[in-house]
Structures are given as structure tokens and as C-alpha cells.
């Protein structure tokens, strides 16, 4: 056996030991002025060997095995060049790039993206990176393997309602923009990827900024930012068909078409997608549809692009999770749960007899969430001269939808209805089906001017003005006993209106060749009004005006062309979400949160490896957290805690062992604490709330360690096998650091295979396989908890969201 193992290792290492290594070097310059282009991208196609040119436009690719390659050189604003080369020794190849005949799409997002000179911690995810991981799961799962990211899925398999956390911060604290346009919902402040199914198929690149990041549009980033750029046009016409099928009857069908550049000026692209899945949990089904249309005019100094994209979702609700007693198979615990929650008949049988990891409390056949969202973007960029440029956008988003639910034994009075009289006696309650609607309009404008005063001084001035108009209302679509309300009437109506304005100035200055200083100053003002009635029929009359100043400063020092160090200090302020305002006691509003963010790091990149390591401190003032406190009308509320913090160190690296082997790895180690925390527990014996105080406790859902590793093996051109492994340490479901209310740590391994090839009539065919959780680990990635006192004892209710065991997704992509 030992001899066999040595032989197997030898076979794998033979290509490494036998291959001769050579170097390609040269320079990249501008064709007319013959000046070097620093930061140009140089890479060997279908390999992981790539580098950026240094401050003089020079480059060097090392450790290249003899063979035939395609060398690609690109730089924003210039035409990309491809050169086929035969490597059998060291070579020098110089490039002179010609200014592009049209303005590149990258200018649309340049104002809100970080660079090596901005002193910001970030990760760029390319179109190729997205494509190899896109099997139809929501976008959070596609970027799951980036530093400090933890994802979860209500239905357990990455389709339907999914969530993402960066550095322990949830989606409501992650700023998301698409082409610089805010995506987060103005009231809840979250980004709901279920409303944008298969959006990843229309994405060119994503920049993930961790921490506060650079000034952007929309709500402040309190954990990170996702800056998304939609697809740039292909040079040539194309048609593409993609299909995925896998476990839980998951099916994805995507069709994409594009004209390429017509007369070097016009382009049109389109995508149509459908995704459906039964989900891992019982009845966790989803039916998702979307489209993306884009047309553009590309001038030499102008770019006009119009994007229209839309998504619709019908998702059976699985957001209640699994009670701990059902998950652990605790029969007595389930019986106690049935008594406490007054379950009867089918509901009790469902709890007792369901699969312990697939239990779904909902049984009503139409317990669905239904939502439609349409996006319209008009994007314009103008290069006035070699110093001054502009880009701006007009946008409009229309969203509408409802979730439907069956409710037993509902009091007519709770819906503002009169008690019907039957046979001379009033009827107080009835079984009913209700729909809770959200109808909203979001529109506005974003802009930025960039002025490059000199090679060492750059200014950006930008901002946005956005308006949100949301309507919240409810309907009773069916009731067992008729009332005085028609099923189209509203039993409550509420409005949420928000005006959001911001302006920012960014300055980048290099007083010396290796040193760059960066400053970013943002002023943000908002006005938020909530009126009408909420779903509990209580009147709403909230009016708040806030003004925020968000300064950021940073510095980068380039040790040599391959490496640099950076540091930054940023301040961000953030308002509470709708629930914070609605659930607060009458006459009170939540204090806004403030974050002081310190980042420092070191980055290095060579032809064979790239690596970055950074340390950070995030210090919160008045962070809003769940404490168990309820308002004077019994609603759960978040409260401000005076002092809390996140301290951590992160690593992100890639190393090419040989032409055949590549290793990717990242790690996030952190300490996340609330200095003083008060928990409130309702006591049914005394009819009051008991308070318990804690010191220096962990912030909920903030793992101390998130680790990822990937080994990629490419035995021949076009074929790759990747073994991925991710570890997430334990997380507490509340802020008390109680071992009885936690998510256990988990270690999950995936396997991904991909093979690209072509033949006559087909530009590229890709066959892909994604095997998730290949070791069949049983784990829960999310949950929630609450408690109370009754009969002198504390009762704790823990709920979990189990994720699927071993499951497969097989894809076929054909591009013509």
C-alpha cells in the first residue's frame, strides 16, 4: 500500500519535476506617445499566470513551461492585444497599445471602486471566476469562497431565500450597488437575491470591499460592500445556452444572445432565465424567472447604455426553521413544544413525524412568497479630454408582491372588523387566509466627475439623490366565517417615504513615486416618514431627519513594483431600519449607529503567486442589536448598545505550484465583542421583564474563524478539478454567549469539475459538475432564539436552518 501511494504521488509530481521553466518580459506603452502604461494586465490565456505592469510599464512572467500560448495585454481605454507565442526559452515581447475606438464599460463603476492606491481592503471577482461557480445558486453562494463570507439558505440548497454575512455583518449592513445604483431596499436595508434569479449570468465583475470601503451610493456599509458591474459587450456576435440539473429537482435554463459590436458603435445583449427547485427542506420549493436586456452606443468619447432587467419569484415559505427538539429527535421536547404552542391535528403530526432536518412548519398549500421587481437604468459616460471625464445614471425600480399565509382562530377585532352574528350570537374568531403586500417605487440619479490634474493628482466629485415611496397593506383573501370586508379591501394601509441625498469628494495624491495619499469625504442627508397603520392596526406617525458626515483617509506605499502596504481610517453613520422605527416605543426613535474603521495591510503579486494580509478594527457606537426587549405594545425591538467592536486579521492568497496545480486559500480570524450587554426576558409569572447583564460577550452570528482552501488540478488544457474546503467556527444566536444557544462550527467540502472544448460550429462547450458537501456533513448555518420565564423556569426556543447533505449539480453550456 505504501509503495502504491508513493507511485501515485510520483505520477502527480512528474510534470512538476520534468518541466523546464522560462521567463517572458517586456514593456507595455501607449502607441502614439510611447509612454509606459503602469497597471496594464498581462496574462497567458487558459493559465493562472498573470501580472500587472509596474510604474514604468514593464512586466515579467516567470516559471513558464515550454509550449504554445496566447499572451494577452489589456488596459482600460486601449484595445486589447493577443499574441500567439512559442515558448522554448526566455523571451522579451514589447507591446504598444492603441487607444480604443470606443469608451470602455469599466468607466461606469470606476468612481465607486477601490484601487491599490485607496488604502482599502477589497477582493475583485472576475467574470471567469463567477462563471466557473455559477450553477444556478444565488449570488451569495457564488462568492462564498471569498474572505470572511458566510452564506445560508432557508431551503437548504442555495436556491430561494439566501443570506450573506461579511465579517459577521448581515445583509442589512452590506451596501450593494449595480453599476453604481443602490440595490438595498430603502426600508429594510437588505438586498434580496431571490428577486434577481440568475443575475450572476449578466455580471462582468464584482468588487467586495470589506469594512467601510470607499464612498458609494445608498445606505452605509457597516461590514462590507458589493460593487457589481453588469456585462460588457462581446466584440463578436454570440448565442449561448446553459442548462443545469441536479439534486432536489433543481433545474436552471438560461439563454443569452448578443450582437457584438455593430459598426464599432452599437451593441445589444439579452438573457432569459428560469430556475426551479424543490429545495432540501419539505415544501421548500422555488420557481424563479428573470430577464436582462441591454443596448449601448459606444463612441470614442461617449458611452450610452440602457439596461432593463427583471425578476419574479414564487417561493414556498421555509423561514420558520426547525425547532431544536425536532432537530435533535427529542420526543419529550417535541411534546412539550406542542403543548406550549398549542399545536393540534396535522400540525402536531407534522412535527412528530417529519424528517428531523427537513421539517417545515407550514402545511397550507399556497403558503407562498410572491414578488416581482423591475429595474431600469440609463447609464452615460463622457470622456471630455485626457484629464476630465463624467459618468451618471438615471434609475427606476418598481417592486410589488405579497406573502400569503393561513392563520387559524383569528379574532375579528385584531383585523378591525365587526363580529358577525350567526343565529343571533356573535362570532369572535375565524380561520382565514391573509396577504401582506409591499408595493414600492425607487428612483433617482447618480453622478461623478473625475479630473486627473496630473500623473500624481486625481480628483473625483460625485453623489446621488434617490427617492423611495413604499406602500404596505393587507388583505383577507378567504375566511371561514364571512365578515364585512371584501377580499380586495385593505384591513391596514401604511406608507414609508424616504429621500436620500449624498455628495462626496475623493482625492488621490502621490507626493513621491512610491507613496500615495487618499482622502474621501462624504455628506449624506436623509428624510424618512412612516405614516398610516401597521399590520397590528396601530397608527404610525414617524418623522426623522438625519445628517451624516463620513470621512475616510488612507495611504499606500509601494515597496517595489510587486508589493505595497496600506492603511486607512474611515467613519460611517447609519440609520435604523423600518422595524427599528415602527417597533420603538411611542415618541422615541432609534439613535443612528456610528462605525470607526481602521484597516492596514500588505499585498504582493508575482507571476506565480499573489497574497494579501490585513488587520482591521471596527469600533461601533450605538450599534443596534436584539436584546429581547419588547415595546410598550409587545413588539420585539432592537436597542442601541454603547460600545462594541470587531477586531480581526485576514489572509487571501493564490500560488501556482506548476502548470498543473494551483492553490487558493483565505482565512479570517476575528474577535467580536459587546462591552456591556443587557438581556430582557419576559416573565409570565410576574408580568414583567427580567433583566440580566453581561460583560464582554460575543456579538451574535460572528464566528471567530472562517477558513477556506482550494486545490485546483489542470492535467490538460480546458480541464480542471477543484477540491474546496471551508470551515466556519461556532456562532452564538444571541449576544449572551450562552452555549445552549449557538450554531456548532462546521467544515464542508465541495468538488468542482469543468471541461472546456470546441469544435466546428461551436465556439465553446463547457461541461461542469458541482458536488456540494461531499462528506455529507450535517450542519446548520443559521438560526434564531428567544426565551421566557414561566412557572419559575426559563423556556428557551431555539430554531435552526439545516443545510443539505451531499448534493450534485450538473451543467452544460454551449456558446455559438
TrEMBL record:
Residues 339-774 form the TonB-dependent receptor-like beta-barrel domain. Residues 120-224 form the TonB-dependent receptor plug domain. It is found in: Cell outer membrane. One of its GO terms (cellular component) is cell outer membrane. InterPro entries: Beta-barrel_TonB, Beta-barrel_TonB_sf, CarboxyPept-like_regulatory, Plug_dom, Plug_dom_sf, TonB-dep_rcpt-like. It is a multi-pass membrane protein. Keywords: Cell outer membrane, Ion transport, Iron, Iron transport, Membrane, Signal, TonB box, Transmembrane, Transmembrane beta strand, Transport. It comes from the Bacteria. Residues 1-20 form the signal peptide. GO terms for molecular function: siderophore uptake transmembrane transporter activity. Belongs to the TonB-dependent receptor family. This is Contig61, whole genome shotgun sequence. It comes from Pedobacter lusitanus.
